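Students often ask why we bother encoding 3D structure as a string. The short answer is that it lets us treat folding as translation between two languages. Here is a chain of 168 residues written in the first language.
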Amino acid sequence: MVRAQCPAALRKFGFCGILTVVYAARLPMPTSVAKMLTLFDEMKKVLCMKKGKWKSSQPKRAGNICLSDTVCLLRHYNACEYAVDIPQGPAQTLGKWLKTVDKNTCYIVHVKKHALFVEVGAVKSKWRMYDQTGVRSKEDMPSLDRVGGHGRRHVVAVIKIGSKVSLS
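And here it is in the second language, the structure alphabet:
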């Protein structure tokens, strides 16, 4: 299933964490800045954040949330089952982690200073990665693996989304 992409007008706002929750909980994609700010206000109330927390950081880091905030929002919307996995041992890059995904699954992946939604099809190598910049696939790995790309960033945590969740 192809998911709605983030509109071009909202790409300058760094709301990757919020966007992963929108994809996982199947919330309606905000199509304008006003709808995005309404979504921010709703989520701020759920997270009990101070009124100016996101307003003072716009547009650069608006909607930047951590792993515990992501889990809190998933629990609040109760639209999917999930399991959190915090990798132990040596740090693993996003590029190497993508080789370990299961078919027909979805994930929220927190890498250093960014969050991504990954959807894997019936074939393990047919994955799609969503964030506010658009959709990426295996064909985009050379650009992701460049210096400063998300493919080189270390995976901090993985949230497996689905109806039958098992982290074996």
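Translate back mentally: DSSP finds five helices and six strands in the chain. Keep this in mind for the problem set.
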